[in-house]
Specification:
By secondary structure, this protein is an alpha+beta fold. It has 2 domains: 1-55; 61-248, 3-Layer(aba) Sandwich (Glutaredoxin). It is 56% helix and 11% strand. It is built from 7 helices and 7 strands, in the order H-E-E-E-H-E-H-H-H-H-E-E-E-H. The chain has helices at 3-53, 106-122, 142-170, 177-186, 191-199, 204-216, 238-248, and strands at residues 61-62, 86-89, 95-101, 126-132, 221-222, 224-227, 230-231. A 5-stranded mixed β-sheet has the order 2-4-3-6-7. Helix 3 packs across helix 4 and helix 3 (142-170) crosses helix 5. The longest helix is centred in the N-terminal third of the chain and has 51 residues, at 3-53. The chain starts with a helix and ends with a helix.
Length: 249
């Protein structure tokens, strides 16, 4: 055997040792990558699940207290309407839209112009009934604003109520005692009479009656709407609401 061949055979064990180390490192790296990948996939799956679990209707402010089950789609509920309710439009209209609303709710603010558009387009075919559903735990000014609106109604009638309501939504970022008094004066109402009504919360019972009634109807957030007794919840766009109205005419 030549000296060259002897050198080759002497190097083979060393080469095998180095190759073994490299192979071990490769295997360990592969296992680590698989573990990390698995953890990443688990994390992503958890994120997706969490997002799905917390998905909310972005067009409705959720009620902060338990309510009766929401009406089953297609179910018609009977909502009492009397002389104490605020009606906009023809009182004998074939289509009645009842809205349980919150003056501080951003979705109610978004929906208010939609309802005004409905009234402009349908005229005497639709009557709009506004009822209070203040979400006290998340909207601290919702109930005071509702009490103030009812005071405006007591002093100035139905037209004063609707003018006051329109102004509250137009000035939603300013809700508070000063605004309520300002709007009352703008409507030509007696400032002292309004102050007395508002400070004594003389209309609080009316607001609470609406709220309790809304719970009984299954309202789960605001705006909670019913078209001829059928639930159409949320700040739905005009075209969607139009389809429901047309189906009732």
């Amino acid at each position: 055997m030549s000296s060259e061949n002897q050198s080759v055979f002497k190097l083979k064990p060393k080469t095998a040792f180095i190759a073994g180390i490299i192979a071990s490192l490769f295997v360990m790296g592969t296992i680590g990558f698989i573990v990390l990948l698995g953890g990443a996939l688990d994390t992503d799956a958890g994120s997706v699940k969490s997002a799905a679990d917390t998905t909310v209707n972005t067009n409705t402010a959720p009620a902060a207290v338990p309510t009766n089950p929401a009406p089953t789609p297609g179910t018609v509920v009977s909502i009492p309407i009397d002389d104490g309710d605020h009606i906009r439009g023809n009182v004998n209209a074939p289509v009645t839209i009842v809205e349980y609303s919150d003056y501080e709710c951003p979705f109610c603010n978004k929906f208010h112009p939609t309802m005004k558009q409905v009234m402009d387009e349908y005229g005497d075919q639709v009557r709009w009934v506004y009822k209070h559903f203040p979400l006290d735990s998340i909207h601290s000014e919702a109930r005071p604003a509702a009490i103030a609106a009812e005071c405006a109604a007591n002093l100035g009638g139905n037209d004063a109520f609707w003018s006051f309501t329109d102004s509250l939504f137009e000035n939603q970022t300013r809700l508070g005692d000063d605004l309520y008094k300002e709007l009352a004066v703008d409507l030509g109402l007696s400032a002292s009479a309004f102050d007395e009504c508002y400070s004594s919360k003389a209309t609080a019972d009316k607001v609470q009656e609406d709220y309790v009634e809304g719970q009984q109807m299954g309202v789960r957030g605001t705006p909670g709407n019913f078209v001829n007794g059928q639930s159409v919840s949320g700040a739905v766009p005009f075209e969607s609401l139009k389809q429901v109205i047309d189906s009732q005419l």
